[in-house]
Amino acid sequence: MIGLTPDVCDSETLPLQMMHEMAKTSFITTAIDYTNSPPHVGHAYEKVLADVIARYHRLKGENVFFLTGVDQHGQKVQQSASKAGLPPAEFVKGITQKFIDLWKKLDVQYDDWAETISDRHKKVVQGILQRLFDEGQIYKDKQAGHYSVRQEQFLTDKERGPDGQFGPEWGQVEFREEENYYFKLGQYKEWLLHYLDSRGDAIVPDFRQKELRNAVERLTGDLCISRPKSRLDWGIELPFDKDFVTYVWFDALTNYISFAGYDPSQSTINTQPSTFRDKWPALQIIGKDVLVPAHGIYWLIMLHAIGFTDNEMPQLLVHGWWNVSGAKMSKSVGNIVDPFVLADKYSAGALRYYLMSDMTTGQDADFSEERLIERYNADLANSLGNLLNRTLNMAHRYRDGRVKTFQGVPLELRPEGNDEVFDLLTRCRIGLGRYGEDFMDMYSVSDGLKVPFSFVRGANFLIDYWQPWRLAKKAGEEERLSLLLFVLIESLRIVAILISPIMPKAAHGIFDQLNWKIELSGKEERFSLADAEWGRLPDGHVVGKPVPLFPRIETSG
Ligand code: MSP
């Protein structure tokens, strides 16, 4: 993981066991989803992306702590509950369950689950607020002005359109006078600018860091952190004034540390419990809409204000949006894409593959069911599924499933008299090196996926070129046929490892059929990046029989 933490130990001087004990955990978080309506495909994308990155780190042998969850307080939730005629606590329970069900269905394997109504979270939020209040960083003030009910915020003249009116995006606007509590956000502006200037990869991709920096330049004023209970009571009570609840961001953002063992009574990281120190800082995966101001300004400043140093700031990985025909998904437009329906129709693996391969991390993409089917049929059913099927069939037909292994580059398979086609497998092996460092470590999952699929293309090409059924009939070609089968099976073994973060079930399926590490069947330790090295298959290994893994999706059109 790209992090700022310096190496804590000198590997040359420490015994191996101690190094192991001191190995830091890779901590990965996502935004927590509002429980005002059920999950859509945008929520699914973010959690699958985080799951893929978490699985990739496990594949490298690292300890991983992957935290995700739900944002259960606030006005939006209170309003949706009242529309549904339910008390908020009951309403939230139902929607929360839908998120949990979806993550199970999509094989999103988190290590802990954040629910902001839980007691352990409440204690940390209140502990932090009390500390900031005692230090004079929170004060009470009266505000009067135009208030947007929809966006739950006071408006200033900056929000007026050219006609002097507040646009429709603000919904109903009314005049309000209200006392609230404020956090002294503005005083940290210079610090934040300095921090962003001193760390090039604070925000990934870097165009988002520039966008954030510009926004920080324009930062004025402090942050309102409360709502009077008379107006909103579905929230965490302020520890120093029982007539108020905490307003959304102070509550929601704190989840990243409250569920990681943070102790609010300790104002330096050094005095935090070791469970927390071992994990922090996190890689935080969020959508572009919650970078400015929430994560990029409020969160970084909150952390700084409660004692986190610059080296202890999290890295923010900002992804784009899934749109539908170029437009934002929204309930009112009626273009919400339901991930449950897609997973039931095409399988979790198909949906995970589409979401990961068809979006460049950081950019927007357009969701299309036709495209999902197209990619599934081309890449999974025709290329990978077909390779697995024909390879295992041929291995049994020609060699009773037994693999003879070979060393080095299989030059004997170099297509002759064809300058255009150079050694595909050598090329793939170079790709293998790039999979981690150039792609997955940089969160470029769609590029990372191209590596195993180039093996698949190369292997399929070799079958078509050498036509094993022809070699089998030709005297003197026995070695070449054995070599070809070895190359195909070895490629499939490596492909399974490389796709395992993205499609864990399919990877298990391939391993099962290859009869590989069968004693670890179903266990994630079955996959290790170190095993994705050419030539690890033992001589005489016997592969299993083929079972269709990716049945073609038939469309009526
Ligand atoms: N509850 C806040 C986040 C608090 S984090 C401390 C919130 N919730 S949300 O449900 O509206 O969004 C949750 C995440 O889903 C955000 O990162 C958001 O960017 C992401 N997505 C919501 N719609 C999306 C798409 N259409 N496409 C991709 N991701 C999108 O904001």
Q: Considering DSSP H and I runs of 4 or more, what fraction of the residues is helical?
A: 40-55%
Q: Count the beta strands.
A: 17
Task: Report the bound ligands by name, code or SMILES.
Answer: 5'-O-[(L-methionyl)-sulphamoyl]adenosine
Strand content: 5-15%
Mean of residue pLDDT values: 92
- Rounded Rg: 27 Å
Apparent shape: elongated
The largest pleated sheet is described as:
7 strands, parallel
Work out the helix count. Answer: 19
Distance between the termini: 44 Å
Structural class by sheet pairing and helices: alpha/beta
Poorly predicted regions: 1-20
Polypeptide structure, described:
This protein has 557 residues and is of the alpha/beta class. Helices cover 44% and strands 14% of the residues. The chain has 19 helices and 17 strands. The strands form 4 sheets. Strands 1, 2, 3, 4, 8, 13 and 14 form a 7-stranded parallel beta sheet that branches. Strands 6-5-7-9 form a 4-stranded antiparallel beta sheet. Strand 13, helix 11 (291-305) and strand 14 (315-319) form a beta-alpha-beta unit. Helix 15 packs antiparallel against helix 16 and helix 16 (445-466) runs antiparallel to helix 18. The radius of gyration is 27 Å and the shape is elongated. The two termini are 44 Å apart. 5'-O-[(L-methionyl)-sulphamoyl]adenosine (MSP) binds next to strand 2, helix 2, helix 8 and strand 13. Residues 31-34, 42-43, 45-46, 71, 252-253, 286-287, 289-290, 321-322, 329 line the site of 5'-O-[(L-methionyl)-sulphamoyl]adenosine (MSP).
